[in-house]
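This part of the workshop introduces the protein records we will be handling. Getting from the letters to the tokens is the skill we practise here. The record below serves as our worked example for the rest of this section.

…
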Amino acid sequence: MRKYGWILITISSLLSIDAKAQIDSTLLKRTPVDTAKNLLNMDAVYNRPFLQVGKLPVSVGGYIEADYGYIGEDGMTDGHSFRIPRMTLFVASSIHRKIKFLSEIEFEEGGEEVAIEFAALDISMHPLLNLRGGIVMNPIGAFNQNHDGPKWEFVDRPIAATDMLPATWSNVGFGLYGKYYLKEWAFGYEAYLTNGFNDAIINNGENRTFLPASKENKERFEESSNGEPLLTGKIAVRHNKVGEVGLSYMGGIYNTYEKDGLILDDKRRLNVYAIDFNTTIPVTKTFIIGEWAWINIDVPGTFSQQFGDQQKGGFVDFVQPILTGDLFGFNNASFNVAMRLEYVDWNDGTFRETGGNIGDEIWAIVPAISFRPTAQTVIRLNYRFMEQTDILGNPPAKISGIQFGVSSYF
């Protein structure tokens, strides 16, 4: 319980301020989400609604997700299931007009796990030169930074973001970022050196090369697993009438190759390349967002071929507003239909002995309908259909079912 103590103390302190001072509701000021067209994905960390109490220097916010699922595989099902996958709290403060602090604390699976996903201090010297230090969100692709549940029409996060790339992947480190605007154009960059992956990406219970396994290593917030920094960099360009394109890279040594001066192994490297995009078709107001990533890993020759040295995957979402306006008593509400297409290949290659394709891949189609009473709240109904193939390419397992959920900022 000790690890929860400081979180509970912080929340209790904020609540006691309200109770003792009996703050009038007119002193509560909500900072709205900025909907400016020239925002980039890198702005997602601050582009959230916050609530400020009077003249207190701290703003708070967060979001909640709850969902229901009835999923079956090859005709078998575990029945009905309800869950709260996550509740997230934001705490932000403007220490100076050029110094800001923001933290993001996530309670997962009903409080079973508590994680600090972001806790960084930003110091601005120039729009093109800003220093960030602390626990930072590695900007690989777009979803890792722009992952808040209320922003999406789908109950589950993309498979490529959670089971190929490690979604909400964050580490301790430092870096620089900057933005530049010119009329309809916006340019942004980020570059960070942080702690990173460890041997768990090839030594894990999944019996495959699996980058998300490194998220279980809590020691990465205290020290590097091998003394080698992980480099993550991204550049993005946006045109207000066209959309945004981002190119990102993440790479470094992942294995513990030396201990106490004793050489244990060669240095083994992983490299991740990703491209992301988003756009809105003006005539139909159709919103399209997607990303694709390629992973290269130096896997030891002593490992079997089920541990892939190349992976690839991604997703694309289509969201089409059908009705907008005053709906069910909500102003500026919208009713949408959506579709997600996703694919992951955890072992992109062929068997050395036969030249046949190595399986271990999955694809999914997820049609959806959603209702947004406000831009910050979504009610969503999904039908998920997936086919997953094992490493030998046997007939795929067919997985399908209904998912219903709600998600909202608060």
